Amino acid sequence: MKNIKLRLIIMNFLEFAVWGAYLTSMGRYLGAHGFGPSIGWFYSVQGIVSLFMPAIIGIVADRWIQAQKALGLCHLIAGVFIAAAGIYAFRAGDAVALSPLFTLYTLSVAFYMPTLALSNSVAFHGLINNGLDTVKDFPPIRVFGTVGFIVTMWIVDLVGAMDTPAQFVISGCLGIVLALYSWTLPKCAIKKAEGKVNLAEALGLKAFALFKQKKMALFFIFSIMLGMCLQVTNGYANPFLESFTAFDQWADTFGVKHSGILISISQICEALCILTIPFFLKRFGIKNVMFMSMLAWVLRFGLFGLGNPGFPGVLLFVLSCIVYGFAFDFFNISGALYVDQETNEAQRSSAQGLFVMMTNGFGSTIGTLLAQAIVNHYVYSPAAQGATPMQVWHGWQTSWYICASFALVVAIAFWILFPKTNKKG
């Protein structure tokens, strides 16, 4: 099929543009409208639905609906619900209520999260059917997903939508566009069911048998712990930066007025960091690279606590965004390679699914809710409501230092307990 790479690039661009419209700015809108104590619930629900929705939709796509049609249907439903959330919030204004907003958002996320896997399936199918190499040709296509994420982050920032529900409407419109576009993509085959389907096997639950192996049990436990860091800054970095509007010397700084663009440095470095992984894996090995990721999380949180929007304090924020690429990519990529090397062919796919479940499912959910408890105690608690701007800042600093301390403890425990491996990437 002609222009298959271009068509898949457009799909990936839109796939993550949908997410980038609100993922890093939603916390700022919620905090500004009195929902600061509930920010964690909005981000943790992504992990909760990721525990079962991708598997359920994946089964449907495998057996009854072509993957590209399932992708379009999911984006249509997700787009309508997230747009409805934005429209409701606009109409309600300052009287917006948590319950209907959270319900509409949750329904959208429930159908968006499965599209992350579906879009990969459509891409792989399209490349293979056109005689292309997925290992060689997919990464350059996938990079445009990160580009799409960054572009919508910038758009939402520059049009002044970070503090408004317009970000949800933008996401919804893009989702509906992708829904229509998905139906034009190459047709994917439907697998015919052979015999009875074991539900536990279909949902990937049999992979939990890997916990019987000590090294794999340790790996998945640490995957949960590292997964606990994944969504913390997505949820709280923007409200943190917005809090500096209370300081006259920092209210008009670039990092406060355009916090979305500042935070987008994280995604830019994430994309660039992928290119360095082969060198680091070859030079240092998988365990050392995973350990580097954990230390990077310490810096990610710690530098937020140390910095401020002025000069030179803002450089610490920039450095925090730079190390995010190493923190996010090094463990996700090297962890996936570790799973690939330590499992046999029969259990490899389910083991990779279990790895994602531990990090983006259990880990992300637990970590976001714990972060919510910490921030609520030091920043959004009733006792802190009458606090001075300096006291609020100190509350944020304490929260970041607690997160950094947790990542440091995990890193030390990993170095001591995790078995050495001589395998390279």
Q: What can you tell me about this protein's structure?
A:
This protein is globular. With 425 residues, the protein is mostly helical. 75% of the residues lie in helices and 0% in strands. The chain folds into two domains: 1-186, MFS general substrate transporter like domains (Growth Hormone, Chain: A), CATH 1.20.1250; 207-425, Growth Hormone, Chain: A (Up-down Bundle), CATH 1.20.1250.20. Helix 5 (67-92) runs antiparallel to helix 6 and helix 10 (214-227) packs antiparallel against helix 16.
Tally of separate domains: 2
Order of helices and strands: HHHHHHHHHHHHHHHHHH
Q: Tally the helices: what do you get? A: 18
Q: Whole-number average pLDDT?
A: 88
Q: Can you tell me the CATH class of the largest domain?
A: Mainly Alpha
Itemize the secondary structure elements and their pairings.
Blueprint: H1 4-20, H2 26-32, H3 39-50, H4 53-63, H5 67-92, H6 98-129, H7 134-158, H8 166-182, H9 199-202, H10 214-227, H11 232-242, H12 254-257, H13 259-273, H14 277-284, H15 286-306, H16 313-342, H17 345-380, H18 389-417
Helix pairs in contact: 1-6, 1-7, 1-8, 2-11, 3-6, 3-11, 3-17, 4-5, 4-6, 5-6, 5-8, 7-13, 10-16, 10-17, 10-18, 13-16, 14-15, 15-16, 15-18, 16-17, 17-18
Keywords:
Growth Hormone, Chain: A, single chain, 2 domains, 75% helix, 425 residues, 18 helices, 0% strand, mainly alpha
Compose a concise summary of this entry.
The chain is built from 18 helices and no strands.
